[in-house]
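Now for one specimen:
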Amino acid sequence: MSKRKTLRWVLVAAVMAVLLLLTPVIAGAACYFVGTVFFAAGNYKAAAGAYNGAIRLYPRFARAYVDLGSSYLALEKYAQAEEAFLKAKSIHDDSCASCGLGTTYHHLGRYEDAEKQFQRSMDLNPADSCAYDQSGRMYYDTGKYPQAIAAFKRALTLRPSYGTYLYIANSYVYARDFEPAIDAYKKALELNSKYSRAHRQLGIAYDYMGRFKEAAAAYEQAIKINPEDETARYQLIFAYTNLRNKTKAREQYEILKKMNPDLAAEVIEDGGLAEPREIGKEKLYFVPLSNFSAAALTKLVNSCKQKTGLEVTVMQPVPFTLSTVNKQRQQVIFEEAVDLIKLRYPKLAADPNAIVIGLTNEDMYVRKEKWQYAFAYPKEGRFAIVSSARMDPVNTDGFADDALLEARLRKMVLKEIGVLYYLYPVNHNSRSLLYDEIHAVEDLDKMGEDF
């Protein structure tokens, strides 16, 4: 065999060897591509299968591990997501893998670990918006609105998006900073004007500022885009009521009643068709129910005045009737307690500027809810009943602690003042006085006492 032929065969063998070596990589890339198609279509289970196939063919495929982790995140399989992102980082520690791992830890409630991974992602690639956006969402979910706003601002400088503008706008609303919230909602709508949700949320921000005409226009636009948006119709009824346009309010109520009778019933319960209040002319009233302690009432009035500066008018006690208490459950019925106050004080019931809080040391439940009990509950946008029974350590732990009972009661009453009198939005911050997820006394104890 000539030297030329020998060289040719050597070259052919070399090429074959390279092709054999590259075959798993090429096949893995093909599987990866299929995974991206499934992922884009929202078929995350199929995407995970394709990414796993890519990894089996090419075990060092770091990007496939990252996208596999993202698929598991979408499927809420957080243990598998963590494993995939950790494997990706072991092959190539990049910002995407760290951001994905931080997002996984956020969903697992491992917030300190999440913060470390988000910071790692930022350090690896300061121009990657992922960690800023995802850390913002974590802060948002945990009620840390100033941190959420800062993170979203940074994300928006790197990659403006509809979703991030919506998140930062909601964060501003929860922080009761409504002007920048309105600006952010408008930015979101500039990017995508076809989503009814942003129009609806914009309307809510206008509502909080008392700009009811603009609120109504935003709700109307939301309904124009999505006629099935029941929440927008619900909010529009209140906007029309505040504009004293009873005809349009009633018209929207009738439409909502056909769409969702239960939500329409809530309109009535929340005072959606009642006479609107005159902003700045509200008056606060406390109504002790049955044998509520006079000493506790005096302390509560003084502490509320100290915290808010509001003068509280204390009405004469209202004794319970037989219909107010469910004998079988041995609990006060919230709805009956409100009706009792209205019956005893018809002038307060008729005054749209009267904010009325009933106080009882008896256990209470809400008929329309499936809860075992309630610390407090509002109605019609200006009535509430607060029950101290399960706040009292004597009833829960078997020992007396007057200071603890007073603190718990004070927080609950101040929260109702914030929601009913000041019209503040509730939030997700467990340390906030306006925390929305109060299920036990432990939640009350974590709450602060400032709005």
Remarks:
- Confidence is low (pLDDT under 50) at residues 9-22.
